Amino acid sequence: MKYIFAFVFAFATMCNSAVHAFTAVKLSDESANAIDPTALTEEESNPVFSYGLLMSGVMQGHNAFFEHEGTRHALGNGALSLTARPFTSTEINVSPMWMYGGMTLNGFGMAGNSNALFSSSSVTPFLGTAYIKQQVTFDASAGEEQANAVITAGKIVLPAVFEANSYASDPTQQFLNMSNLSFGAWETAQETRGTTYGASVKFAKASWNLTIAAGMMPSSAGGLTFDTDVNHANSIATQFCSNIHGTLRMRFLGFVNHANQLNFKQATAVLKSSNGSDEVDLGPARSYSVKYGFGIEAEDKLGEDVGAFIRASWNDGTSESFTFTQINSSVGGGLDFNNSFFGTETSHGGVAFTYNMISNEHRSFLAAGGSGFMLGYGSLNYKSEFIGEAYYRINVIDKVSMTLDYQFIGNAGYNKSQSLHFFTTRFTLSL
Predict the structure, then answer these.
(1) What backbone phi and psi angles, to 5 degrees, belong to 133?
(2) Residue span of the structural domain in which 324 resides
(3) What pLDDT sits at residue 57?
(4) What are the distances in angstroms from CA 140 to CA 91, 205, 402?
(5) CATH number, domain at 255?
């Protein structure tokens, strides 16, 4: 695994490549939903400097099941994207970011978090991403059969180098619940703000593309710092996307992670032998180990006004959830309604659902009093978590949209009869 990681990193660096920005996943623009979001268009490939600004404000309220938690929280964040294209097919981007506000329930107690725009509060601007991206064209005379390679490297959001779902991938414009935006069981390489240091290579033709990417893993579950021992802590992910028939398009994902993580069976044994002690040393149950998984999704147009998607994902669930959220398997889908469906030129909407589940080993760990970076009560009355979500977005003025969003989370955190209703207003400015 370490040789694959080193090869991808070295190959990308040699080709003067780079990385996509934080905005493509957590603060993405419409290009993130294109068939090949990393390809440079003819207009983009001109030697020019450009900038973009994306800001979102979220007000979210819920019927709290934790009496000590507040029921209303506000969040604001933004990203300034600075781009230079010194050569025809080379792009260099730096994106400073800022984030301020509180997270509903502090982001704890739900596998499918209700606000994917939040990662951590930082009033002081910080470097979100910094990347260089290089496109290589093979046989330019081939027309529609032309093949391209896009190489990226630097500080990136790993999912951003992969092709995105057209209807459910952008929390600034589409759904807000993180389970409705990505493969729930994919523990993508990232620290708590969603970024990693890594590289990717994408090979693309008109109807298909193949991407392989490598990134660093955090030093602790849900942590902010990286494990610099990349020989033992790393992530490799690959995605294949292809048109199947007409407008039907499918995506297949596989990943293998190495990290210094808890083994659930060993950790559960330690907890059970502690006789309820408040201070339990789980160090003996932690070691560098492997987690692997896969995902599959399909999307299709059901007409001029409606699109549909389904997705499913799974990981082996034998070790602690290390990034993204605490999900070992997930299945869901939804519908997208464009402006013509509503009879206006400025509105958009969607509905989606997701079922989240955890492995038997994960359940036993939580029931024994274990906890992760998002879940842990000291007891567990298990049932699959269900998430239903609907949103309606309208353009208020040019470049500014307002979204009304409703979410129902049943059996929140896999605890039976623990349900939540979320009501959200979101404003987004995109320049």
Answers:
(1) -130, 130
(2) 2-430
(3) 87
(4) 20, 12, 42
(5) 2.40.160.10
